[in-house]
Amino acid sequence: MRIWLANHYAVPPNIAGITRHYELAREWAIAEGAEVTLWLSRFVHPRRTFITEEEKRAIPHVPGLHFQWLWSFPHKTNDVRRILNMGSFAALFLLTGLFKRRPDVIVASSPHLFTAFAGWMLSKVKRVPFVLEVRDLWPDSLIKMGGLKNPRVVRLLTWMESFLYRHADHIVVLTEHQRKFIRDKGIDPSKIELIPNGIVVGSWEPDPSRRSEIRMKMGVPEDHFVAIYSGAHGPANALEYVVKAGRHLEPGISIVLIGDGPEKEKLKRIKEEEQLDNVHLLDPVPKSEIFDYIAAADCGIISLADNDIFRGARPNKLFDYTFVGKPIVTTVDGEVREIVEKNEVGLFSGAEDPEGLAKALAQVRGFSREKLAQIAENGRRYIDREGDRRKLAKQFYQLLRTLVKKD
């Protein structure tokens, strides 16, 4: 089966960013013998630079997996150039795809809808099934975060969203909330499938000898209790409250934030102005290395803005932390909190509450060795049930196979 998989923000594991699509594509190529073309941008969104030839050469060769690198307009901040970045990628996906050999199925992923719309148009030209993957509920999340106020743009994106829901042959969502949201818009529930984020089990093994080295890179003392946040630094992540928790931390506790985004400079200013020596802001690291950083920490932080749109979030950090076996402190109410509490892998600290976060970290610091061992075991069981990327890739592939057979 020939599969086109398009995501503007997909990256291979030697680059920091979203590796879901690389991991799915690799699994389809290896385990299923599929011929997979992964469409992705040469402009790496988290760090705002273009991928280098050296980085491309470092990507492991996988028979059957092909990369289609597309140029997209460079940008540093979320201004009009960000829109040009999205539009240019989608336009080049459409134009380039017109001249490529026909696939058997096309999968295109949000968050922005332009790539997905280009994928649908290509599916009509090529006469193949189209699968919409919903990573984020656009434009609902933009509107509720106050980032989209132009009524004409709202109408356009709302129309595009509804059109894609109705005309996709199938819809894949990453959370239960997304499935309910789309179903409540009148879309047939049998057309929507939940395939959440996950982890490639066996892709990382703990190396205790690296703990001291990693802690030196973090800039934290060997004997400190370290809480780590890894991921995007944008308005949606509400990281100013995580940084401000440094005011309330007990002695011997440090917070480390790894990643990049439009809020990074603001977070640095907060740290400097309030002289928070117990908060450390690090540059992004590749997915292939992030597990070593998580392993060198003592717990993981999940943070999002206190907004209804995030009640249904299920961030990849949830799987990263449970895979490594670290307890979680989440500031996010809703689906994440339910998973954390139901599986007994951590605590809810309250939303946008620096003092509450500091108290929760102190509570986790006081956990016994036996309790921490049980949390690690609970996390492994959760990954086996709901977060094993190979099992999820198999589920996704069977869906694609069914659609192709119907066509």
UniProtKB/TrEMBL annotation:
Tell me the ranges covered by the Glycosyl transferase family domain, including all copies.
212-381
What domain of life does the native source organism fall in? Bacteria
Per UniProt, residues of the Glycosyltransferase subfamily 4-like N-terminal domain are 21-198
Q: Which Pfam families match?
A: Glyco_trans_4_4, Glycos_transf_1
Q: Which CDD domains match?
A: GT4_WbuB-like
Protein's UniProt name: Glycosyltransferase family 4 protein
